């Protein structure tokens, strides 16, 4: 188990969306939040401009991994079911270390698929075939998780 002073090297990401287990991913880009600011200039005050927070903005998250049998069984089925009328769900991205110990967990509110990109198929250039799943969400869910 990692202590508070250790860092995770060689991590992978396990993704769950309500009852859908989407499996392991090799990379996860876009976890974050931006505070949108509104600027107000005050007459007679030339020293600074007032900055007021207005809303939170969450970027889309891109998850990438090598193609596997999970692609059709889990990813494509979830994308199709999400688009065909099922409600948005809660998502969980769990960071795991190389020895599969949990490091951190991010709970996401109102997750919906944005894009799935399959591998570029080219017999002249053999390489690992990668897929990318892009999801949108409406923020983080507060939890009492120990990680």
Q: Give the oligomeric state of the chains in this entry, treating copies of one chain as homo and distinct chains as hetero.
A: single chain
Query: How far apart are the first and last residues' alpha carbons, in Å?
Result: 11 Å
Number of helices: 1
Shape: elongated
Q: Report the helical percentage.
A: under 10%
Order of helices and strands: EEEEEEHEEE
Calculate the mean pLDDT score and round it.
85
How is the main sheet built? 7 strands, antiparallel
Observed structural traits:
147 residues; mainly beta; Pnp Oxidase, Chain A; seven-stranded antiparallel sheet; two-stranded antiparallel ribbon; 1 helix; Phage tail protein; structural molecule activity; Phage_T4_Gp19; CHP02241
Walk me through the structure.
With 147 residues, the protein is mainly β. The chain has one domain (12-136): Pnp Oxidase, Chain A (Roll), CATH 2.30.110. Helix content is 10%, strand content 46%. It has one helix at residues 70-83, and strands at 12-17, 20-25, 27-29, 34-40, 50-57, 61-66, 89-96, 102-117, 130-136. The strands form two sheets. It has a seven-stranded antiparallel beta sheet, with helices on one face. Strand 7 and strand 8 form a beta hairpin. The longest helix has 14 residues, at 70-83. The protein starts with 11 loop residues before the first strand and ends in an 11-residue tail after the last strand. The mean pLDDT is 85. Pfam families: Phage_T4_gp19. InterPro entries: CHP02241, Phage_T4_Gp19.
């Amino acid at each position: 188990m990692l202590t508070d002073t250790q860092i995770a090297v060689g991590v992978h990401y396990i993704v769950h969306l309500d009852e859908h287990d989407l499996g392991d991913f090799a990379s996860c880009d876009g976890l974050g939040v931006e505070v949108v600011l509104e600027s107000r200039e005050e007459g007679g005050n030339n020293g600074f401009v007032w900055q007021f927070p207005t809303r939170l903005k969450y970027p889309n998250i891109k998850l990438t991994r090598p193609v596997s049998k999970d692609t059709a069984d889990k990813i494509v089925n979830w994308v199709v079911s999400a688009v065909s009328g099922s409600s948005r769900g809660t998502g969980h991205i769990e960071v795991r270390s190389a020895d599969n110990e949990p490091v951190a967990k991010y709970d996401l509110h109102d997750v919906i698929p944005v894009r799935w990109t399959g591998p570029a198929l080219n017999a002249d250039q053999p390489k690992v075939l990668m897929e990318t799943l892009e999801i949108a969400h409406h923020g983080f869910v507060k939890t009492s998780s120990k990680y």
